[in-house]
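Structure request: Phage P2 GpE, Marinobacterium stanieri.
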Amino acid sequence: MVFHWRPCDMDGMELVELMDWREKARKRWESDS
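Returned structure:
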């Protein structure tokens, strides 16, 4: 698992912030492979 948050933890995040975290997770996942 790369990052994991409950939906309620993400409620206050803007879409741009969620997209940034998703990109960080993708890069982290690919570097582990």
